[in-house]
Amino acid sequence: MGELIQFPYNERLEEQGGHVVENSEQDNPRFGDVRRRAELLEIRNALKDIPTLKSAMDVEIVAHNLSAMLEEAKEKKGISKIKVAKAIWPDDESPLKRFDKLTLPLARIAMPGRIERLQKRTSLYCKVALELAKCTEDRAEKTLVRLFRNTSVDRRLCELVDGRERSFGDLDDSWQNLAEMFDALAERIKEKVDFKGHMTRIVAMGGKYDLSSGDIFVNPLDVMSGGNRLLNYGPLSDNFEIWDHFPPIPSVLLVGELLLPRFRHPLSATSTKTGATCALDVEVRVWREIRLAIGPIDSIDQVGPLFEARTRVDLGHETKAVKLIRPWLDLGSPDDATLLIDGEEYVSELDFETQIPSGRSWSDLLMWQDMSVRGSDGAIHRFDLQPQHDYAAWRRVTAELCAELLDKPKQHNVVSEYVIPFHVPLTEPTLTPEGTLGAAVELAIRNDSSNLASSLLQEAERLIAVVKQEQTRRRAEARALNDQAVTSWSRK
C-alpha cells in the first residue's frame, strides 16, 4: 500500500443472474437480493413523499436519466421514442413534443431555456418510465429506480430502506460533482474496453477467481452442474463476496484507513519446504481499503462505479520482509495463513482476538454495519453488509456515500491514519472541502499524472485478458478432446 499522502496521527483518536430471496432470516447469505427487493417495493412510497423535484439539479439528472433509458430501449430492443409517446398520449397529434419538457440531450449541449422548461412533477416522469417498462418488458419498479438514481428521490429511498435518520437534502453540491466525476471515469474506461463482452463471459463461465494470484480456477462440477460462476450472484450493489470467490471486477485503492493503532504481535511460523520454525515479533497494521470498482450495479448490463470495501492486514518487521499471501483475514477468530518471510513460504496460525481495545470486538469495525431491509413479512431486518473481515462489500457510488466515506478526517474520528496511494498536486483548488480525503481523491481523478485512471484501465484490461485467455484455453481443450473422440470412433 502506497503512502504518498499521510494525514496526521490523531491520538484521540433479483435482479438478473439469481434467485430472489424470500427468506429474510439474518443468516441468509444473500442479503443483497433481499435488500434489492425491498428497494424496488418501496420506490412508490418514496415517490408519494416527493411529488415534485425540489432542485434544478434533480430535474436535470432525471431528464438525462430518462433520455438514456429511451436511447437504450431503442438500441437494445428497437423501441422507438415515438412508440412510447403514442402509447402514453394516443390522442396527441405530436406526442414527441412532450419529451421536450421531460428529457435532455445526452451530450449535455448547452440549450438556453431548455432546462428551465423541464417538468418538475415526478408523476409525469413516472408515467413515461412505466410505459417504457411495459414496452421493454422490464420490471416497473426497477425502471423507476433507474429513473430517479442520484436524486433526492433516490436519497429518500435510501432513508426508507436503510432506516437512516440523516437527511441529505442540503448536501453540498461538491459531493454530487465528485460522484459525477466517478461516473465519467467509469464511462471513459467502458469506452476503451469490452465491458459488455466481459460481463457476458463472467456470468456464464464456471470457476473461481483467485484474488491473490490473479488466476482462474475451475472445478469440473462448476461446468457440468451450473455451480460456481466467475460472477456468481449477478449485480454487486449492496452485495458482498468472500475473498476466495471474488468476481473478476477491476478496482483500485482510493483510501486506506487504519482501523486501530498499529500493534506488536508474536509470530510463530513453520516453513512449508523444510519444516523449520521461525519466531518473530511483527508489527500488525489492519487497514480498511476503500476502493473504486467498475462492475454491474443493479443489473448485469448496467455497469458503473462502485465503492468496494476490504479489510487488509499487513505485517512488518525491522529486518525481514514479511508478506501475507492472502491478507484478508477473519480477525474474529484464529486464522490459518500462508506468508512469505524473505521470499520463503511459511504457514502460521494468526490470532488477533485479544488485540482489539477493551469492551469492543472485531465485528464493531466491519464496514457498513446495521443495514436495514424490509422483508417479505413487512418486518425490518438488520444485518452487516460486510459479514466478516475476510469478505469484500460493494455499494454504488452516490453523492451521499462520497460524503460519508471521504468527508474526513474529523476531530472525533477514532481512526489514526489515512493513506492515499496516488500522487496528487497539492496546490490545485478543489470543489470538495479542502483538507478532506474527498479533495485528495478529486485531484487524483482529474489529473492524469496521478495514474489513478490509467491504473483502473490497466486492471480492467488485465482482467478481461485473463478471462478471455481462460475461455480460449477451455475451448481449445474441448476441441482437442472432441477430435480425439471422433478419431477413436473411426478406428472402431
What's the quick description here?
The protein has 492 residues and is α+β, with helices and mostly antiparallel strands. The protein has twelve helices and 15 strands.
The level of helicity is 25-40%
Overall tally of domains: 2
Largest sheet: 11 strands, antiparallel
Question: Would you list the SSEs in sequence order as H and E?
Answer: EHHHHHHHHEEHEEEEEEEEEEEHEHH
**Strand-residue fraction?**
15-25%
The number of E-state strands comes to: 15
**Overall pLDDT, averaged?**
80
| Rg from Cα | 25 Å
Number of helices, where a helix is a run of at least 4 consecutive DSSP H or I residues: 12
Tertiary shape: globular
Assign the structural class, choosing from mainly alpha, mainly beta, alpha/beta, alpha+beta, or little secondary structure: alpha+beta
Low-confidence stretches: 1-36, 161-170, 411-415
N→C terminal distance: 61 Å
Give an overview of the whole structure.
36% of the residues lie in helices and 19% in strands. The chain has helices spanning 31-49, 56-77, 81-88, 122-136, 140-147, 152-162, 173-192, 195-204, 220-225, 399-406, 437-446, 452-491; strands at residues 5-6, 208-209, 216-217, 239-242, 251-258, 263-271, 277-296, 303-316, 322-324, 335-341, 344-350, 371-374, 380-383, 391-396, 418-420. With 492 residues, the protein is of the alpha+beta class. The protein is globular, with a radius of gyration of 25 Å. It has 2 domains: 5-17 and 195-462, no CATH class; 31-171, no CATH class. Helix 1 crosses helix 5 (140-147) and helix 7 (173-192) packs across helix 10 (399-406).
